[in-house]
Please model this.
Amino acid sequence: MTKQEYMEKLAAALEERVPEMKDEVLEDYEAHFNMAMAEGKSEEQICEDLGDIDDFVSEFASMEGNKANTGKTFNFNYSFEGKTFEDIVGDFSKGLKEAGDAISKGMTEVVESLKTAYKSDEVQNAIKNGKTFVNQEMNMFKDKFEVDPVSEEDIDPEDVSTTSVNTSSIKKIIVDAVIADVTVEKSEDDKVHIEYENNGSLDQQLKYRYYFKEENDTIYTGVKKTLTKAGLFSNAFNPNITLKIEIPEEMDSVTVISASGETQVSGVKVKNMKLQAASGDMNLEDVECESLMTSTVSGDIKLDNVVAENLAVSTTSGDVVFDGKSKKTAIKTVSGDIDIETDETFEGSIGTVNGDIDIDADCNFESSISTTNGDVNIKLNNNSDGYSLSFQTVNGDVSVDYDGESHTFSKNGKYDYGEKGTVIYAKTVSGDIELCD
Model:
């Protein structure tokens, strides 16, 4: 799509939904096109970066509508003149009763409307699609990793089990935790130690079993759901199952896959680590990797004193906190805040749809930073090495307070200072952008 085609389509959509804001938005987009083209981008690239016009206009119209509905006042026109105390009490009692009747009637209408809406084809299809989506998310992890099937002899019938393995030939560990909480720690010797414990009811102990399998250079371990017939309440609550895994330094690969469980990793050094869960928090502390990937659909991710050459962090619903070092960084969340603290130069992308982004950097970095509904706050302490800030906001302010100079900008633009040691591309739809030292 060319610039002219994009701007014409945008103008038409704005004219239909928010005509009063049309000129201002078009002016902002014109400035963005000019800035991006000056940086060498093609019109097609810029159109792609700006995204879908209908989505933007719908969201923008919704925000403007919400603004228009704020600041309402309540007019109180009751006259006390010529009224006795009993008259006033009677009038107010009557008014309260009428208000209560109106609220009751309104709630009844809302409930009936919800009942009707729930029975509609659109809602039923949405529920069906939602269930399908959840099932797909819960199963997607097992599709991503090929784990050899476990035979009956690999399953331990005990509810508490410990396995120790010499690691001279072991390079990889794959853990299928299912619903277990997993802890990964440093081993005090050159062995892999695995401790399994199921503190659930008898039915739950029969339903979930520990397994271990060693094949070539890989250990497969975790929890398996058995075909044992369980009691009525075996599915009512998840049992308290724990897997504690101790590993020596510098293993090639550690993979932990979980449907529902917490993951804790501390004090380990691994070349490559992958942690994936459908539901559950992840906490990593004092971890060093060449490549680290953490992903959860629903849960917070916290990385404390984590060092990784390549870092990829993602969660659909949850906050991300990263305190450490990474040369190449990608951090994404759909609904949640992102908090980053680092003192080593990095490059990458940081983004959330609904949340704030806070970066505290004692170094230079180059990053694209974006949020749809939230603020971007950057604290930059790079020894006055300067910066290059490209910014875009639809409904927010841009302010800079750096090296003794303060500036305020509006909407879209670019500002360079000093040696431009740090390069930032910041974008938000509804929120402020702030850079300070």
